[in-house]
Amino acid sequence: MTDHGHPESALQAAFLQHDSTLAPSSRVPGEDDSAVYRTLLESTKAIPWKIDWATMEFAYIGPQIEALLGWAPSTWKTVNDWAERMHPDDREAVVNFCVAQSKAGTDHEADYRALTRDGGYVWLRDVVHVVRNDKGDVEALIGFMFDISERKRTEEKLAQLQRELEHLSFHDSLTGAGNRRMFDEVIERTWSAAQESGKALSLIMVDIDFFKSYNDYYGHLQGDECLKRVARLLGEAAGPDHFLGRFGGEEFVLVLANTEADTAVRIAEQCRTLIAEEAIAHVRSPHQQRVTASFGVGTIVPTGRTDRTAFVNLVDAQLYHAKENGRNRIAAVDRAGMQGEAFKAYSR
User: Fold this and answer.
1) Of 58, 117, 154, 316, which residue is most buried, by most CB within 10 angstroms?
2) Which ranges carry the PAS domain (predicted)?
3) What is the pTM of this model?
């Protein structure tokens, strides 16, 4: 193995053979080949290297590696040093990929986090060329390491921005609950899953009582705070396994997968209780001058003969019944109600 501080002639020949920019015609007459290649290889930010396939030893690695990672060129002896100086989360996949591609004689690239001598990590991209002998057997690997940390940071910022934009496109900006667009996707997905599993699907529609009067008396800023507080309480009652969305204005909706009728009514009652206990002042409400809400609840096991939109409309009708019968109460319909639209009213 040659000294790690100087490119060997085989590496020079390989770069000369496979990179037209280093062709003999581009060299300055009279220049010493060794000096030319040493200058080219060691002045670039890309870090050149060569591995002998038979011994799996580094024949050469550029001195730039020490400035970037802190490891001197002399410490890069075998491919084990390369693998061990890789983030544990990246190591297995990257090593397996590079070995498989190299055995197949296929040029390839790999991105991974390389360990620095002080314990940090730098994102690298290895661009690898497989060198074969006259018989077609793999003889060596030559390539360049590139520092792509800045690119990765930019990609992560863009990915984070994309996640934020997706979140905004599916969530109500005021309350943080899902918006109507997200509700449409959730109810479609949940309906299909319930149809396949044969399990019950429940829906709860919620409307804050006398909310226009609340806004007129307290102002829209206070009205916004009321909406946020009610959304938080509904989320607490529904829990993380169920979907909460803002259906529009002062109306919310909960989609309860795998939930029978009795459980759905209990969740609605818990929502109603939490809102009452929050004791949000509402001087224009006849219900103890506090903010209250009305609830429509429906439960169904979807089949090929049932219609999702009709079910949503039926639950919305239950909400209307609750409001028409005095507000601050629950009107519920179960599977049998899909034919008769019967409902039950619950109140304190």
Assistant:
1) 58
2) 33-94
3) 0.58
Looking at 250, 260, 269, 277, which residue is catalytic?
A: 250
Q: Which strands sit side by side in the sheet containing 108-115, from one edge to the other? A: 57-61, 47-52, 138-147, 121-132, 108-115
State which fold the 9-153 domain adopts: Beta-Lactamase (3.30.450)
The pLDDT of residue 28 is 45
- At 152, the amino acid letter reads K
Q: What pLDDT does residue 78 have?
A: 96
Across the chain, mean pLDDT equals 86
Catalytic status, residue 250: yes
Contact assessment for residue 293 and residue 207, using Cβ atoms and an 8 Å cutoff: yes
Supply φ then ψ for residue 144, to 5 degrees: -130, 140
Q: In the chain, what is the greatest distance between 2 CA atoms, to the nearest angstrom? A: 101
**345 vs 236, which has greater pLDDT?**
236
171-346: CATH topology is Alpha-Beta Plaits (3.30.70)
d(CA 99, CA 217): 72
